[in-house]
Structures are given as C-alpha cells and as structure tokens.
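Help: read this over?
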Amino acid sequence: MQAREIAAAKTALDQPGAPIVLFDHVQLAFDERVVLRDMSFTLLKGHTKIILGASGSGKSTALKIITGLLKSDAGVVWVNGQRVDQLGEREMMSVRADLGMIFQEGALFDSLTVRENVGYKLYEETDMPVDEVDRRVAEVLGFIGLAEQVDKMPSELSGGQRRRVAIARAMAFKPTILLYDEATTGLDPITAITVDDEIVKLRDLEGVSSIVVTHQLRDAFYVATHMAVRAADGTVRIVDATPEKEREAEFIMLREGVIVFEGDADSLRRSADPYIQTFLS
C-alpha cells in the first residue's frame, strides 16, 4: 500500500466511502519473533481482501488485531471509524458488535439446535422479542439454503452445513464486516464451493465487507472472480465477475509477516516474483 494512499485514507475516515478497515504500519512481535512487520492496507465498504500466505505468515494474527483479541506493538488500526489500537476491552465491545467472525471449525455449540446457535447472540445479548429473533433466524437460514435444518443438532449436519450455519450465526445480527479464518479448510472441493458461494452472496447482496484468510488458492480465486446476482423473480445466481467487480477483491500475500504483494487476481497471476510463483504452483 502506497504511503500517500494510506495518508489520503486517514484524512477521510469519517466520510462516505472511507475505508471500513485501515492498517497503518502495524507491527507485532511475540518475544523475539516478529509476526507482522510494517503492515499497511485498507478495506473499502462492500469490498473483499483475501490474505494469503504460508502457515505462520501472520494471516490470522491480522484478524485478531481487528477484533481486539491482540494489540499491535506499533502502528494504527481503524475499524468502522474507530481507532481500535487505543481502545480498552470495554470500548472494543461496541466495535465487535459490528463484526462477524467465522472460524475454521465453525465453533458451534454442540448442545444447541441450529435455531439456537444462529440466534444465540440475539437471544442472549439483545432485547429483541423471541418471535422477531426466530424470524431473523429463519431469514438467514433461508438465505444460505438451510431452512429445513433449523431444528437439527450440529452433530446431524455435514461439515459444509456446519460451516454455513456458522456463517448464518455471524450474519444474524447484521454486521457490516465479516472475517473468515480458513473457513473452507478441511472441506472437499464441492462442499467448499457452497461456503464460497455464501461469502460471495453476503458481499454482493448484503453489502458486507469481507476479509478472507486462507491458504486454499482454489477458494481464494473463486471468491475473487465470481459475483452474485438476483433475478427479477428473486432467484440468486453465482456468475463470473465483471472486470470491475473482480477488481473489488484484492489479494494480500504475506511472507514472514511482510506484505510482498497487494493487487487483484489478474495481477497476482501475472506476478514474476519467485516466492509468489512458488506459492501459486
């Protein structure tokens, strides 16, 4: 990320079209091991950042900094117009209220039904009437195509269905930012595509801003090169992205905590950098 782009973004963080997430020279080390080194990037509303890199390159660490689970040693972090690197735990609660996070394992409550899992935050942390929560749960399960699973237990679902229920739970309270941490790892290719489709649908039909951390190149390029469209009859299709839409999904390649590439899918494919070519192969 060019320094002038970061500077321009910082001057307009409270303006329409401002970055919804901004990292400005962020650094973090654990003892002598540097995990992130001088990391700078912006995420615009409704766009996608896809963070790639080998295991231990700092991908998931960036998500933990956004959510306040980790504090950077240096640099500035803005999320939804708030400078989160200066916030305490209590202040971070309001930031997290607008963040949804999907983990590799889905992290569902085994003792709760799908309905109870998806509506958990609304049932437990809001004053929303139960019938309204149930309507919202039905709405999001319908969106991801699992309405008929509402009364099942997680143990009765397939791996792909559990991941999609985790996405439904994350979207139930209508966050503006969704963070995906290896959401398709461990799934077979066909099942992984069903999860990728939900990421695309949420971005394009719900206006959600996304950060996707993955080492699965197939899924990364799928999310970047496809878009969701809704027909007049309400049906949704996943189609090849237009060039303009494809440019709204940007890749970040991390190597030992350093950004070695940032750009769209086409630029990543054409990169002559030996490390990137080795990773892509």
